[in-house]
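A reminder from the course coordinator: this example appears on the midterm review sheet, so study it carefully.

Given structure:
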């Protein structure tokens, strides 16, 4: 009897069966729910201390400032690359840089430009994702097919733009995959892309319910 009790299973609902118990649907492990903005974790892990949730949600705070800041750094570093390639002096009265300074400054500036561009695209994906979320909410609250279609269409456009920005960020972040910076940027872009796709599906569902 002891052996039978030891083998007793506890399957009390649908979901992934792990270690004798159900731990939520399998889709929750792969795809982050649209309501969870920054974690990219399954919904089954959302019962965490409130402090951790707040730290994760703070990833979206100051997104516009980070977007503009990273864009400025990328543009400045790109301009420095041009100066290094052309051999222009760094100031009006300064002498032209030597070949060693041009190579060193150009490579360093190019490296900084790629990193800033990756961060910029990831933040842009976040901004577009939140825009798509607002469009999806507007479509869901609309009372009628013709009223729901414009925000749903806009949501689809925002989701496509989010995907493009996220893919660009992930590609650039892969160059820094050896560092924590590359992993953070890639995760930020991936979560934004998945959430925007989920928003587009919700917006389409809001219009389809009037067509049936």
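Designed residues:
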């Amino acid at each position: 009897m002891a052996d039978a009790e030891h083998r007793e299973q506890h399957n009390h609902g649908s979901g992934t069966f792990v270690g004798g118990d159900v731990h939520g649907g399998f889709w929750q492990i792969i795809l982050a729910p649209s309501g969870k903005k920054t974690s990219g974790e399954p919904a089954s892990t959302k019962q965490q201390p409130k402090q951790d949730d707040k730290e994760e949600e703070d990833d979206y705070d100051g997104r516009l400032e980070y977007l503009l800041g990273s864009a400025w750094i990328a543009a400045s570093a790109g301009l420095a690359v041009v100066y290094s390639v052309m051999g222009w002096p760094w100031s009006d009265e300064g002498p032209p840089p030597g070949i060693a300074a041009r190579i060193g400054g150009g490579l360093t500036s190019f490296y900084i430009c790629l990193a800033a561009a990756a961060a910029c695209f990831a933040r842009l994906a976040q901004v577009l994702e939140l825009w798509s979320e607002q469009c999806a909410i507007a479509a869901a609250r609309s009372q009628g097919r013709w009223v729901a279609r414009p925000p749903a269409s806009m949501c689809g456009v925002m989701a496509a733009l989010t995907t493009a920005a996220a893919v660009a960020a992930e590609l650039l972040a892969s160059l820094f995959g050896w560092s924590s910076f590359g992993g953070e940027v890639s995760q930020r872009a991936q979560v934004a892309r998945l959430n925007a796709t989920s928003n587009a599906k919700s917006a389409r569902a809001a219009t389809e319910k009037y067509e049936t």
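Confidence is low (pLDDT under 50) at residues 1-56. The beta strands are 17-18, 21-22.
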